[in-house]
């Protein structure tokens, strides 16, 4: 392997280790609680040393922040894509479907953590502008335009929150990720039914 190939492979391995740490931490935070989980336990869950863990994240707070920052970047990418397209019924349907799919497939475990550790999350996340609520507002503008009636605006905002609401509703049940996605899609469809076509989810990869 060339030196360039070795560097690329090392970066890929490092990126995968980082993702593994995030997912292991999320599982432990959700199952045991954020405050009750230590960095040592996260390392043990993965079978790595604490030094290896601290190479990627210097604290539990850093892990949580990285997860939410990545989710926000993914939503920003989706919003930028939609803003560059002509506003048509098909765009509205595709955008809402992609938003729901992205929330479920990429952010579902993060949402479960947030629901289970609400107080801890508020302490970890610094107050700032430009969080999920701001992005929901931008998404509603993409779907409706700037002068939409309040009732329509609230319906669309509720549709954009459908995955979060489905996660809350599923607490204490045996609902799977697919169950939550189906519930969220159905709820969003009912909410926007009089405004534009039902959300169209991307085809499974």
TrEMBL record:
Keyword terms: DNA-binding, Transcription, Transcription regulation
Task: Name the InterPro entries on file.
Answer: DNA-bd_HTH_TetR-type_CS, Homeodomain-like_sf, HTH-type_TetR-like_transc_reg, HTH_TetR
Q: Which residues bind DNA?
A: 38-57
Matches recorded under Gene3D superfamilies: Tetracycline Repressor, domain 2
Q: Which domain of life is it from?
A: Bacteria
* Pfam families to which the protein is assigned, alphabetical: TetR_N
What residues does the HTH tetR-type domain cover? 15-75
Q: Name any one GO molecular function.
A: transcription cis-regulatory region binding
Q: What is this protein called?
A: AcrR family transcriptional regulator
